[in-house]
């Protein structure tokens, strides 16, 4: 048995599909009804520009009627469009959505079945008889003659049990205002006007200050923010106009706040994605577009080539805004970076443009003052940097004394960004500095001086042995720094390892020991023989005094280098401090 057959559609199945999988909430039924009324008026006005353009919704909490002054439908059209799922009068002969209409899929009316079991449509096309169509959610419908004086359509729904909340007058008024506040036709809910709002960037004849105040006011109302700046948007290809608001507070670049998007003046979404490139996380847009397409649920933008081009165009606009700030208001750009630097830096890890922005504009901490890396390079050539803030603190003063400029790469993302700079291909050279690298820039003391100080050094080493630290004597600038405590990374790692091993059980202790290769890379206490204080200390002969002085220097070096103070260090600091006090304060009569 062969032959042409027609698909049957199980309407219940379709309604279930729509309600649970396409639309996020039954509330969209209002949007779909409103949209059909708007389209019908648009169609009528195309041939009769003077035709009335009114949409009136009324509700008593159980029944909702939507009356429009649109084109209406003939009986043949009722069968073709209302009673055929997926058939729409809003496509051209080839099946493309006609761009003057909001609808295009021929499924919107089905959303009425999310809240009602029966949809009644009374409609009359110009010069034709009125027709009544009653469709039911079980998939049946009937058509018959009826009365209607004017051209237009009336849609009536009675709330299904359990769906009454969507028919409450306040809810209906809210939903109509939400979706339709800026529609170009008069819409009323129970006699009250629901439209009439304007998009502030569309108003002509305002002075700059007045316009900006209106745009800022609009951001406060709709997004709840007072923007850092407002950037006008205009993408003719997509019939898109609007504004991008630069956020006044830091945001997480991964957190897509989304944009407020209108399509042909009907609200699509307050959280639409895809309108901006990832790097432009610092802006939220409000736009209206005539050519961008919605997805079938009409809750998101359809990802097509046009959306890609819009994204590029808005990206270019925001890039231009950033570049413009750099040239005309660098202080504003710095302020912008103060707010959004973490996000900008996070993106700069992957985006060369953002990296250049950071390079040129973000003032980094250095031991010669805060400055952008580009300036630093221009002055000092190589970018020497430390990987951590602790390293930087240890090094900053001493490096400056030796005319080495160092950048603190310890803040979030900074050292990764510095390491990425040579990849930009501008001949940038970077070099990571370790505190121990400095030791190679220290000079040894004269051999005869070293020889004469052997007893002192031996006494000093004895005092430091129990702290696992090696004492060395060098000369370096600046002479105002008497002592440095230098830990290289592997030594620091092993110290941590040992501390952990002492706290865990035997099995883990064994595992950890495998990493602890014995080498003599103990931290160093470097005494600066160029410091007058150290020279005087070197002249001490009493081993007790030597120990006290060296311990005090050790404590000071720990504090200056922001090293962690272990309990043993704290005890030693205490002891040396009291010991030195005792030396400093002469014994009084009471002690005798
Ligand atoms: N108020 C109305 N006045 C005149 N015609 C209407 C009205 N409501 C619906 N129609 C007709 O019924 C058809 C189907 O409507 P439906 O809302 O299901 O789909 P659509 O609006 O064409 O597309 P979409 O699924 O994108 O909303 C429309 O194409 C239109 O021809």
From TrEMBL:
Transmembrane segments: none annotated. Keywords: ATP-binding, Chaperone, Nucleotide-binding. SUPFAM superfamilies: ATPase domain of HSP90 chaperone/DNA topoisomerase II/histidine kinase (SSF55874), Ribosomal protein S5 domain 2-like (SSF54211). InterPro entries: HATPase_C_sf, Hsp90_fam, Ribosomal_Su5_D2-typ_SF. It holds the Pfam family HATPase_c_3. It comes from the Bacteria. NCBIfam families: PRK14083.1. Belongs to the heat shock protein 90 family. This is HSP90 family protein. It comes from Cryptosporangium minutisporangium.
């Amino acid at each position: 048995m062969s032959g042409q057959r027609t698909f049957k559609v199980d309407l219940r199945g379709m309604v279930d599909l729509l309600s649970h999988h396409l639309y996020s909430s039954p509330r969209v039924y209002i949007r779909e009804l409103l949209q059909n009324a708007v389209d019908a008026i648009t169609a009528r006005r195309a041939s009769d520009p003077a035709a009335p353009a009114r949409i009136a919704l009324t509700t008593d909490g159980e029944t909702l009627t939507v009356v429009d002054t649109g084109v209406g439908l003939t009986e043949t059209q009722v069968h073709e469009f209302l009673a055929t799922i997926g058939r729409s009068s809003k496509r051209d002969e080839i099946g493309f959505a006609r761009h003057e209409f909001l609808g295009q899929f021929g499924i919107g009316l089905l959303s009425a079945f999310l809240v009602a079991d029966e949809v009644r449509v009374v409609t009359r096309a110009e010069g034709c008889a009125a027709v009544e169509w009653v469709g039911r959610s079980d998939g049946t419908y009937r058509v018959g003659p009826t009365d209607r004086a004017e051209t237009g359509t009336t849609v009536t729904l009675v709330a299904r049990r359990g769906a009454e909340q969507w028919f409450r007058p306040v809810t209906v008024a809210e939903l109509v205002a939400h979706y339709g506040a800026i529609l170009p036709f008069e819409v009323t809910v129970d006699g009250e006007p629901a439209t009439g709002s304007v998009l502030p960037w569309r108003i002509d004849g305002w002075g700059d200050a007045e316009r900006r105040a209106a745009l800022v006011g609009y951001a406060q109302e709709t997004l709840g923010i007072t923007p850092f700046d407002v950037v006008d948007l205009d993408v003719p290809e997509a019939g898109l106009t609007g504004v991008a608001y630069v956020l006044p507070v830091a945001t997480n670049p991964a957190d897509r706040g989304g944009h407020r998007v209108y399509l042909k003046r009907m609200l699509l979404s307050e959280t639409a994605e895809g309108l901006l490139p990832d790097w432009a996380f610092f802006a939220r847009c409000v736009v209206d577009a005539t050519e961008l397409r919605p997805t079938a649920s009409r809750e998101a933008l359809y990802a097509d080539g046009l959306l890609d081009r819009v994204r590029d165009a808005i990206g270019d606009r925001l890039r231009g805004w950033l570049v413009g700030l750099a040239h005309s208001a660098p202080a504003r750009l710095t302020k912008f970076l103060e707010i959004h630097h973490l996000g900008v830096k996070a993106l700069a890890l992957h985006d060369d443009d953002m990296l250049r922005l950071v390079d040129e504009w973000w003032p980094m901490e250095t031991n010669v003052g805060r400055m952008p890396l580009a300036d630093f390079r221009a002055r000092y050539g190589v970018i020497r940097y430390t990987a951590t803030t602790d390293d930087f603190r240890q090094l900053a003063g001493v490096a400056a004394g030796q005319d080495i400029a160092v950048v603190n790469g310890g803040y979030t993302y900074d050292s990764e960004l510095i390491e990425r700079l040579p990849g930009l291909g501008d001949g940038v050279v970077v070099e990571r500095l370790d505190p121990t690298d400095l030791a190679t820039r220290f000079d040894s003391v004269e051999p005869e001086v070293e020889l004469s100080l052997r007893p002192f050094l031996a006494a000093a080493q004895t005092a430091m042995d129990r702290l696992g630290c090696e004492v060395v004597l060098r000369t370096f600038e600046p002479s105002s720094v008497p002592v440095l405590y230098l830990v290289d990374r592997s030594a620091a790692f092993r110290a941590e390892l040992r501390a952990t091993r002492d706290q865990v059980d035997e099995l883990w202790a064994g595992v950890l020991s495998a990493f602890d290769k014995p080498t003599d890379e103990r931290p160093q206490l470097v005494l600066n023989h160029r410091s007058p204080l150290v020279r005087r200390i070197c002249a001490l002969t009493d081993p007790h005094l030597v120990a006290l002085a060296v311990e005090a220097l050790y404590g000071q070096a720990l504090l200056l280098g922001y090293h962690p103070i272990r309990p043993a260090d704290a005890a030693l600091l205490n002891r040396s401090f009291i010991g030195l006090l005792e030396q400093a304060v002469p014994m009084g009569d009471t002690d005798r």
